[in-house]
Amino acid sequence: MGVEPACPVLLLFLAGIIIWVVEAEVHYYDFVLAEKNFTRLCKTKSMLVVNGQFPGPTIYVHKGDTVFVNVHNHGDYGLTVHWHGVKQPRNPWSDGSAYITQCPIEPGHNFTYEVVFSEEEGTLWWHANSDWTRNTVHGAIVIYPPHGFSYPFPTPAGEQILILGTWFTYDVNKVIKEILRTGKDVPVSDAYIINGQPGDFCACSKEMAYRWQVDYGKTYLIRLVNALMNEEFFFAIAGHDLIVVGIDGSYLKPFTTSYVMLSNGQTMDVLVKTNRSPGRYYMAGRQYYTDNLFFTGYDKTNASAILEYRGKYDRLSSPFFPEKLPSYTDYDSATQFRKRLKSLASKEHPIDVPRNVTTQMYITASMDKIVHNFSAYMDYTLLSSLNNISWVNPSTDVLQAYYRNLSGFYTLDFLDEPPYYFDFVADLRDDSTHPLKGTKVKVLEYSEEVEIVFQSTNLLNASDEHSMYIHGHKFYVLGEGYGNFNSTRDTETYNLVDPPYLSTASLPVKGWLTIRFKANNPGVWAMHCQEGRHLIWGMNTVLIVKNGSNPETSIRTPPPNMPSCASYPSIHKALEVSAE
Predict the structure, then answer these.
(1) Taking burial as the number of CB atoms within 10 A of a residue's CB, which of 202, 204, 395, 572 is the most buried?
(2) Do β-strands 26-40 and 66-73 pair in parallel, antiparallel, or remain unpaired?
(3) Residue 219 class from Cβ within 10 Å (0-12 exposed, 13-18 middle, 19+ buried)?
(4) Using one digit for the tens of pLDDT, what is the confidence trace for 31-54?
């Protein structure tokens, strides 16, 4: 339940800039995680969900509000909950990143997160952040403009949340637990879903497709969430153009398109005008597949929901299907769509691209393996890495160790560049880079400006798009391209005027991606590929942003009830000593 007290607004005008002083609202929610049976694709399974719902409940706030969410874990294993794309200024304690900002909430326990919405406006989402539990534990976050302010586009007649997800007909968490033990590949999903339903093109699903009723002649706002486990996703509505106005809780210069493409973990706000002949139209999506094209067994589900006009017409005829939905491997459509993303500049939403970069990093993202020589046979373990380092979770969270100045849980030697240089995008069927496993972090000074060039590699002939995500910060995407990054040629293509301001961005297959941000949020923050298979294999690191010069630019003190690392009693002794 949310609590919404009165919220007076005071407008001040200073040097032509609008400043708003708002008595922010405080909301309270209870999330109860428990198993519940669900039936899809003709099969019933038990799965962990929040408050008996799938997808989970939506959080509604205004910009500047604070939400307290008390998470009660009635499930069978420990987990955390993360607020994807929320900056959480000075408050890494409630970021919800397992073994990075907290230890898991164990079964039978609870923990209250304090979620502060400081600069976000639009659509974001929340999800579990332990292994693959987010497959069923997730929901949307709707962030309205501050009271007294409106959208930078005409107020829509209504809005609709569409959460794109992944369905397995079995308990995928048990399978992932075994995969983590053996190091083998992850399973292919059985279907994709929209608001929990596969839609008309899947078995035992035709009568269960999600339906959205609209009136003719209106403009509606659709809030899209890519909550899939691994995939980027194309989406379109038959017969209707989409006007893209926002992404990752930031506004964009509006543009019209027949389809959209969402990186894994991304959110998007689009307008649709209901100006077609009254009838039924499919809202459909399919994955954008960029992995090895020799593998054809990927999930080819066309997930679908139905947009239905109110009124009289033949409802027995089949809905129209979007003719312009790109194919699964349409690289050009994905690339051209991303090139159209440009930030909206206004007094209320200024663009502030960092121009005084003091830290530059060049980070390779790779699929790797470690070969094991046994007496009778050889075997291998799949890994993924950043700069040839595959992340290993410590026995207590990095934040606690950093804040308490505990040694032995991480090292400060994450590399600013790869240890080996070669033709990163050539066909490389073998991995000769010998990845290291470790808990290595990068330390940044408060408020320094950072530029990172991510480079996709083709080790194991397994280059793939990666959805790169940074906790606690948003960043400007200056450019992307195909091939090996060239610091002379490619920097000339950078957009320094109106680049999109994102929290999650696509690193192209066999390509590069450049971002910039200001490290102005003290704390411990994960940086990783959002795709589940790459994340559990180690495509992750941590950025530690040091405190500034005063309390207002320093990490807040921890709450008294942080989840403990129950399996590691020696940790508790160290924490007790450090707290004395």
Answers:
(1) 202
(2) parallel
(3) middle
(4) 999 999 999 999 999 999 999 999
Average pLDDT, the chain: 91
Return the closest-CA partner of residue 269 out of 68, 19, 69, 500.
500
Contact by Cβ (8 Å): 199, 301: no
Q: Are 522 and 443 in contact (CB under 8 A)?
A: no
Q: What is the 3-state secondary structure (H, E, C) of 305-331?
A: EEEEECCCCCCCCCCECCCCCCCCCCH
- Residues contacting residue 366 through CB under 8 Å, at least 6 positions apart: 384, 385, 386, 388, 431, 433, 435, 457, 459
* Contact status, residue 72 vs residue 29, Cβ threshold 8 Å: no
User: Which residue blocks in 104-255 are alpha helix, DSSP H?
Assistant: 172-182
Per the listing, tokens 């679908």 go with: 304
CA dihedral 441, 445, 450, 455 (to 10 degrees): -10
- The burial class, CB within 10 Å (0-12 / 13-18 / 19+), for 335 is middle
Residue 178: φ, ψ to 5°: -70, -40
Residue labelled with tokens 């970069």: 357
Residue 373 has pLDDT above 70, yes or no: no
The residue type found at 16 is G
Structure tokens of 173?
């968490």
**What predicted TM-score, i.e. pTM, was given to this entire model?**
0.93
Q: Are strands 232-237 and 260-262 parallel, antiparallel or unpaired?
A: antiparallel
Q: Is the pLDDT of residue 199 over 90?
A: yes
Tokens (6 digits) for 153: 């586009």
- The gap between the terminal CA atoms of the chain, to the nearest Å, is 38
Task: Give the chain's radius of gyration (CA, Å).
Answer: 23
Closest CA to 408 of 391, 389, 394, 429: 394
Phi, psi of 466 (to 5 degrees): -125, 135
Place of tokens 């000074």: 445
